[in-house]
Design goal:
The protein is of the alpha+beta class. The chain has a six-stranded mixed beta sheet with strand order 2-1-6-5-4-3. Strand 4 and strand 5 form a beta hairpin. Helix 1 packs antiparallel against helix 2. The protein is globular, with a radius of gyration of 14 Å. It starts with a helix and ends with a strand.
């Protein structure tokens, strides 16, 4: 199983040990103006699992792409009459996630 599938499994199952095993020791996470180390990302992810902010049952993986050196994942979620799209890019080093970048776009639902 490639890194991206393992990451999706870790998020879906809220499996913190699995997620941590996928992260390079020098991993950096970037979203907007936020920059986190591996340790900070793990702490925030645990909090988001605990408070329900990161709930895979409310998200749908709409696109995914992976090579041996990188992966990309698009996830959508409907919330309060909005469609929220999370574009994730992963750069690998030593077959682990070395850089993780996220961009979030919110659109109004027309339904």
């Amino acid at each position: 199983m490639m890194v991206l599938e393992k990451f999706i499994e870790g998020i879906a199952n809220q499996d913190l040990p699995l997620l941590e095993s996928l992260l390079h020791e020098d991993m950096l996470f970037v979203q907007e103006t936020t920059l986190e180390t591996k340790e900070e990302w793990m702490k925030d992810t645990k909090q988001q699992f605990n408070n329900g902010m990161l709930d895979a049952t409310k998200m749908e993986v709409t696109k995914k792409f992976e090579t041996k050196d990188m992966g990309a994942l698009e996830v959508t979620m409907k919330k309060d009459r909005h469609l929220i799209t999370f574009s994730n890019v992963f750069l690998y080093k030593d077959n682990k996630i070395y850089r993780h970048l996220i961009n979030v776009v919110t659109d109004n639902l027309t339904e």
